[in-house]
Amino acid sequence: MQQYRSDLSIFQERESEARGYCRRFDTLFTRAVGSELFDADGRRWIDFLAGCGSLNYGHNDADMSAALIAHIQQQGLAVGMDLHTGPKKRFLELFARHVLAPRGLNHRVMFTGPTGTNAIEAALKLARKVTGRHNVIAFTNGYHGVSMGALAATGNGYNRMGQGALLPGVTRHPFEGYFGPGVDTADMLAQLLDDPSSGIDKPAAILLEPVQGEGGLNQASRGWMQRIAQIAQRHGALLIVDEVQAGCGRTGSFFSFEPLGVVPDLIALSKSISGYGLPMALLLVRPDRDQWRPAEHNGTFRGNNHAFVTAAVAIEKYWQDDSFSQGVAQRASLVTRELQAMAAMVPGAYLKGRGLMQGLHVGSGALADRILRRAFERGLVIEAAGPEDEVIKVLTPLNISAALLAEGLSILQRAVAETLGVPLPVRAAQPVAGRPAASQPAATAVAAAHADLAQAA
Amino acid sequence: MQQYRSDLSIFQERESEARGYCRRFDTLFTRAVGSELFDADGRRWIDFLAGCGSLNYGHNDADMSAALIAHIQQQGLAVGMDLHTGPKKRFLELFARHVLAPRGLNHRVMFTGPTGTNAIEAALKLARKVTGRHNVIAFTNGYHGVSMGALAATGNGYNRMGQGALLPGVTRHPFEGYFGPGVDTADMLAQLLDDPSSGIDKPAAILLEPVQGEGGLNQASRGWMQRIAQIAQRHGALLIVDEVQAGCGRTGSFFSFEPLGVVPDLIALSKSISGYGLPMALLLVRPDRDQWRPAEHNGTFRGNNHAFVTAAVAIEKYWQDDSFSQGVAQRASLVTRELQAMAAMVPGAYLKGRGLMQGLHVGSGALADRILRRAFERGLVIEAAGPEDEVIKVLTPLNISAALLAEGLSILQRAVAETLGVPLPVRAAQPVAGRPAASQPAATAVAAAHADLAQAA
Amino acid sequence: MQQYRSDLSIFQERESEARGYCRRFDTLFTRAVGSELFDADGRRWIDFLAGCGSLNYGHNDADMSAALIAHIQQQGLAVGMDLHTGPKKRFLELFARHVLAPRGLNHRVMFTGPTGTNAIEAALKLARKVTGRHNVIAFTNGYHGVSMGALAATGNGYNRMGQGALLPGVTRHPFEGYFGPGVDTADMLAQLLDDPSSGIDKPAAILLEPVQGEGGLNQASRGWMQRIAQIAQRHGALLIVDEVQAGCGRTGSFFSFEPLGVVPDLIALSKSISGYGLPMALLLVRPDRDQWRPAEHNGTFRGNNHAFVTAAVAIEKYWQDDSFSQGVAQRASLVTRELQAMAAMVPGAYLKGRGLMQGLHVGSGALADRILRRAFERGLVIEAAGPEDEVIKVLTPLNISAALLAEGLSILQRAVAETLGVPLPVRAAQPVAGRPAASQPAATAVAAAHADLAQAA
Amino acid sequence: MQQYRSDLSIFQERESEARGYCRRFDTLFTRAVGSELFDADGRRWIDFLAGCGSLNYGHNDADMSAALIAHIQQQGLAVGMDLHTGPKKRFLELFARHVLAPRGLNHRVMFTGPTGTNAIEAALKLARKVTGRHNVIAFTNGYHGVSMGALAATGNGYNRMGQGALLPGVTRHPFEGYFGPGVDTADMLAQLLDDPSSGIDKPAAILLEPVQGEGGLNQASRGWMQRIAQIAQRHGALLIVDEVQAGCGRTGSFFSFEPLGVVPDLIALSKSISGYGLPMALLLVRPDRDQWRPAEHNGTFRGNNHAFVTAAVAIEKYWQDDSFSQGVAQRASLVTRELQAMAAMVPGAYLKGRGLMQGLHVGSGALADRILRRAFERGLVIEAAGPEDEVIKVLTPLNISAALLAEGLSILQRAVAETLGVPLPVRAAQPVAGRPAASQPAATAVAAAHADLAQAA
């Protein structure tokens, strides 16, 4: 078995300055299982980051591991380009049966380069091809990736890197609620597109995330989203929904757009679609929009067969009925309750997001940073989102156990309390004897969690 | 063990029209080992495509399989974003020791999204950031990927899809030899960049493949390449070498630029860098060019730890000394000899490329297509490259056995002969008794191959 | 003396389909003086179009004619490129003394190609050069010209011609009032620019017309304009004010921004700056923004000396004190009053604009077209503006006589009444004996006008 | 009569740094007639710049002056937008009769904004509209103006100002002879456009000047130009010829493309089209390419009626037969002979251009600058062209008298001799008694000129 020493000097010496997360979480991770991470010295963290949403089923799901090992042992293909292969066939069958069919979707599956940004690139190119137009409506705080096509649609100025006029073809529009509750930004878009002199060119597509993962957990309401879909239809534009972070059950339903009552033309999936953290991405294409010519958009790693193997397990294991969704909803309720308790400790703080994609807006990135650093010291890996990284984002595996969820939330609560210098709520005052205080879950939280999640286990 | 039925209807029904290779190679592949592919019915093909260059060490290398299974069994991380992880550390150490150090390179390693196009996107953004310029010189028939930044630099009109002004920032220049042997296109570039009124904006970078993989196996000579490097330096532009297809030993040396006597500022690697066909890409950055800010260019799957595990095995197994390179050279000689024999059978045909990245220009894509279809029927997976897909490209695993190499070349030779309606050379006249003619290696070829490759085995 | 026959066939045969105004005003104009136009058959029209705002002092001002003839007779230069010439010197001196100095402006004068669009092109290039940024904020319904740089900032979709991604570098923002009275679009801009994740790149400039001439006479309020100026300053962007149509006294003050309490970095002037309808344009540049290198932005006709001659007369004759401005204000009051009377005749109609740049929004372009055609038949040349050409725009010479103003307004009123099929207001019921009804001014209007304008004559 | 004092301080104080020519020619010009310029102090210069080619018939042609004064006196329109007016009608008739018809052209006339760059903008937009493509092939050292659309096609880096990706839609190609006599750049273009993988998008247009005015007097041969026209036709691209500087007789024929045997789709004219130096421009459009919608491309000063008046005189006076062209040819021969004499005085110097658009390449911009400054001191206004301003460009009025032409060339010859420190050729050794040496024509040159031009007077 491979052993790793904890010395980190090679990263300073040899890895590019582009590295990011490792600066905050500065240790050598060597093992992970379920919702827990371990470093080379055996130290443990609860994982509230979940591979940035690529580990919705946790680390090293035993069934997926077994299937993947079996695939390797029987010399299944690893890379398959876009050849027909067994695992791809099986994935397609299961995905069609358990994901598409029950939701009334007849979309075709396009396997793109195995990252979210590649799927978005494919979507934008297809929308432009189908419509013969160039303009794409994208939204404030939208995040769609960092390759140039997707980056043009991404709001984050840090990632945009001042590439300026090299990022053409996008008209930015305010997301729902951007200007506060009194301003309907869908009406605004309708007015702009109806006005032949507004200067907004007829769009090839409207691209959005129903819940903005990196942008700060802003979420679209059912009414707004339907208005957007109507606007797209009325103007002959394709509706592209980016489900890269919010999809695969993150908000409870498989797709985050499901409860919003729309049917997108194109749907981008990545991150958790493989179920195991393996690189994979796909674009769902409404059949009449599938106007690709053979190999027009290509790429070597479109056929990551290891990912297809684990993805098939994930679909079969978690999505044959709605019990998994119910479990997400129950955990989400717990998260809401605990975040509300924390919000009460931070002046002006408030909750954002939905499902297991919720967070706490603490007012500033500096404060969030202090809380997150303290949480890491106490055994919790968790990150922030939003324009200034001011939203502490709870992104747990969707099947996290009641105990770990409660423990993680308790650590976060303590980190908030300690950073703010405020007392913990009463219920958390008595640590359970014999366990170290740092990772001590609040007693009531644990009890509540166990009760809540009993049937979802 | 997972069994797959050979029915292909699900692909027609559910996979996007964007699929390509599977149309030519229309069967269900289920197993692969070394240089052989097998379908659901047990039919065998020799693999002269090698995952489009992502399988330089063949399918399912036993040592890599073992290491990967061990990693999974000990619950190593799958996705690691850009966290410090054990496999990443080990890869960095081995890559620095066995690849960079012996070649006098002190570049830093940037892990990008796990596809070649993502590495190119990172390179272009960095070059533009470092120089404050926007223009990039790219070459006729260059191929760098299909996300919008990389696509702007890609020559292929089919892939460019008429996206037009959405692909800004690139000045196209003729590659070496584009206008025939009498025209030095490096001198042309020098003249254009020295002329303040040429209309060519000062470049941020010059981007090229030393051997153009998709563009038709056009190769840069040492003199031309050094001129290009001097021009880049003289004008303050970064030299970016795309080693996505030609790197990792494909031409014999680890990097295809090694024999050309240049030191690029940025080097993109992908395809075979994981050794096993797993999605992975990286950008090598000269330290003084490493002006990234933390997480400025990011992406979830930058840390494919499964790929790091196999990549480490690949480096350690194949690149500790030059014996592997010698083996490539020996196989390459054999390929040259056999392709020359085939060239003699096709009026006007000639050889292109170098190392195990050689091909036969047969004059038209239509002819190549007929030959390739016949080869596939006879048990050989092989593809074409070039503007019209008129160059039959031999892209075997670099460690293909003498017997399989000879057998594959023999199939190809027969396909050429049958398509052209010309007799085989004499040495191939007598099939070995007891084996089906279709996959019958030419006797002399086998003998020659065995002799040639004896010491490289 | 040159005689012209009224046959128009040569235009159909030989002039491009791009011609526009002549389709509505389909006769051969041969003479013009003051506020009147005459065709080859001697028919007369009152001119409420005024060369689209390029004839603020009317046609063939006698003093300008005399000065121009003298210039020609003494063999003064016609074209002077950017040489120092006498007329240019004199214009500079008078413009500095009578226009810039009294308004506390110390801007430098850049002579650009002699059209408004060329001045805007120069402004955008300079702003981008000074700031090193690429993005320019421009507004819905803004109109800045049709060359590609200016066109990118122009809202009109018809003029944008689907040139798409060839019009880069502009972020469109809603002008004041675009979303109705309750929505402050300056606050919106402030929020977007303060948000590092809004996707709006830091601007090189904010470009706007204080009164949108072609866009439908939308006007910026003092408070909104000051907010915009503050936002520009706060973000290091240049404030560019397009005074091409609204400047040179059109709204009463020389610059339309004067009453709004801002000092733009760059100010574009054209149309009436020559005073006589001769092609001329200039860009006023705040001295610290004057970072041009010699001849960096050039053009042969920057030095139209005939225009400088008449421009000097215009400045000296009309702008030595504020009597001219007062006359504009008095005429504007009359226009307001009469347009209000017309508004009462058209369901839903309302007034727009200010000064002698007012109009009547009649609800649809189709209705406006019918009114305008009828007005033309009755002896009035007048046009519409707005996204659908639904705003009838009164753009008289600024020194139009009381009688002609009243007569023109009366024709317009009748055209409205006849088109709508409603009776004229009572005061217009009795035509003056002996004059044809069509061009009969409303008696009360004439009386009112004479009284109102007595001191401004 | 207006008097101007020679003090220049107002220009330093108030004119933008963008001013250029006036820095070299630093005096106050107040009068001009024919081929002579005079400053406020009565000093005289011979004009070898001719308004940068906008004064092909010299300053203040008496017939044009008379016609213009008459037009003003009879209150003809100045600005006419695109209304039908008498002078426009007359110009159209004469231009069709004397210019288009004799050359077999049935193009329609589009009046654009009155500068060359505006005509080019219109041409590019129309070509993109007609073809539905975006790419335009433009050439090294091409000069088409400085508004953003035209600037994208302009080679000069100084004028391009690093606007970078804001100048999209142009592929640069080497002009004829750019890589020396052995390299056929038309063949190169053919190869690039025939290659689907060259990376050059199918063009909407090919845009070029048959003689590059600002780019250094590079000229296209008949064979090369015809190849370019064939390539355009073969690929469905429009051929746009920029005749802004080379047209209106500058090279002898009315259009510089006439002797080259091609029929462009679009032809841009400006500069000397008004004949008098007044701002005017037009685009000739092959009827089947005239796909403009009404007012799609507009602009206030498209109808500069003063310019139409003088343009009509110019056509009628100079282009009813070929005597004017013959006069140009005779003067051009003289210029050639004298420039050859000068070339013999400057090591490495050689002649460029044709007609009265010839120049002397003296090897460096620094040397040219010294010669030009000396020439100005001695009474000659003349400029340089080329990438480094290293080509001294003789751009006289086309009807310059024999005496002035000889005198100007003599001044230039002396300036060359004095700058290089070499003796004048023998024939110029004896100044004529009683005249100041500075403006002393070489005796033989004058005699030769008188003889040569006797019949052309």
Model description:
Chains A, B, C, D: Pathway: Amine and polyamine biosynthesis; ectoine biosynthesis; L-ectoine from L-aspartate 4-semialdehyde: step 1/3. 4 copies of one chain form a homotetramer. Chain A has 457 residues and is an alpha/beta fold. Chain A folds into 2 domains: 9-61 and 323-454, Aspartate Aminotransferase, domain 1, CATH 3.90.1150.10; 76-318, Type I PLP-dependent aspartate aminotransferase-like (Major domain) (Aspartate Aminotransferase, domain 2, 3-Layer(aba) Sandwich), CATH 3.40.640. Helices cover 37% and strands 14% of the residues of chain A. The longest helix of chain A is centred in the last third of the chain and has 21 residues, at 323-343. Chain A is globular and about 60 Å long. Chains in contact: A-B, A-C, A-D, B-C, B-D, C-D. Chains A and B meet through helix 1, helix 2, strand 1, helix 3 and helix 4 of A and helix 1, helix 2, strand 1, helix 3 and helix 4 of B.
Keywords:
homotetramer; 457 residues; alpha/beta; Aspartate Aminotransferase, domain 1; Aspartate Aminotransferase, domain 2; 2 domains; 7-stranded mixed sheet; 4-stranded mixed sheet; 15 helices; 15 strands; globular
